[in-house]
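One-letter codes give the sequence; the integers encode the fold. A sample entry reads:
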Amino acid sequence: MTRTEKAERILEILDDLYPQPPIPLGHRDPFTLLVAVLLSAQTTDARVNLVTPALFERAATPEAMAGLSTEEILDHIKTCGLAPTKAKNIKKLSEILVENHGVEVPRTFAELEALPGVGHKTASVVMAQAFGIPAFPVDTHIHRLAARWGLSSGKNVDLTERDLKAVFPEQTWISVHLQIIYFGREHCPASRHDLLQCPICSWAATKKRIREEHAKWRKKR
């Protein structure tokens, strides 16, 4: 089975399980989505969703956020990983949006990735989920499952993104990256996972990978 054939079958399964996958981060508009995605680095979506309601109640626009002190932003997000750095980046990017972008979140990868704390993955999420522009954000779940399913070598996230874009139709990228995230969380964990019982791994993973991970799973039982 080729990678493209695998992707077609995987997509059928994911569409059946998650026909309309919701965006897991609570937000109101492109700006609040940008902040939420920035906060999600090395932090669970659940944790981000606990801290952003109060933060956005205090400041839900670039102007309002730029008007807050770094210390006040930090006080709202202090339970998130790397909070001090994130607080500085949120304030600075808000100031840049006010000063250079007419308080609008830019719609290009180059402009987004030029903002403090915004990498390619964060920019990809904003492009896809805020603006509907085809992009394929690759998080740890997607990177791991793409390798486990034999859709990419798993050498690095850039290669994984390229490989997934090659096998999934462009019109599916916005939804399928969310579908893979949900599948990874609910059906395909990184450890203590029996690939033989998985609705995708059982046939998509290579026999060698199934043997290796099944052996690890049996030892941990």
Remarks:
- The radius of gyration is 19 Å.
- The chain has a mean pLDDT of 94.
- The domain at 3-20+137-220 is CATH 1.10.1670.10 (Endonuclease Iii, domain 2).
